[in-house]
Design goal:
single chain, 237 residues, mainly beta, Glutamine Phosphoribosylpyrophosphate, subunit 1, domain 1, six-stranded antiparallel β-sheet, 13 strands, globular
Amino acid sequence: MEMLSLQNELSGNAYPGRGIVIGKTPDGSKAVTAYFIMGRSENSRNRVFVEEGQGIRTQAFDPSKLSDPSLIIYAPVRVLGNKTIVTNGDQTDTVYELMDQQFTFEQALRTREFEPDGPNYTPRISGVMHIEDGAYNYAMSILKSNNGNPDACNRYTFSYENPVDGEAHFIHTYMHDGNPLPSFEGEPKLVNVVNDIDEYTNLIWDNLNEENKVSLFVRYINIEDGTYETRIVNKNK
């Protein structure tokens, strides 16, 4: 698979929706994840990321303008022991709770499907990173309607064992802007990653569409000892 420029993938797409990047730094020392949200409506744009324990939660920037919290207020990132869970909805809680009961990532997501927001039927995208004793692997998932048909749910899981230094995978909810919004197609895109968390944070944030971007979370986890650094950027301040 050809490695794509994450900068170009973002700058060339006005509305990828929500996106997850997971990978490994070129020097092999850090596991990397990023999660961003975008919005077209006032309700979707009225959000910020706030830290919650070892993870984050979305929160209304102006509570008086929050019209429907059902699909926009959730915990995108939670940590379960040596596992970091990143998703675009409340399935974060599903994965956390069921993996805590010894279900697998894939089994947990079999209890969920795409979002009930017809006609878009936004895909649920999810990732889990597992770091233990200096070893690292990750998996990504997408649950989507069958070409816009909500009677069928298509489920795809992608597992990456012994990730290669300097490689990351990027999955997002929409191919591009549209009405209805077209769901992501294919397997996660192979994209570049850098050693410095601030450089990567700026690369992602600066190339997201200025009008539609809302918030960004980036975390670099030390594979040897599990310590981590986090960056959060919110358009609303």
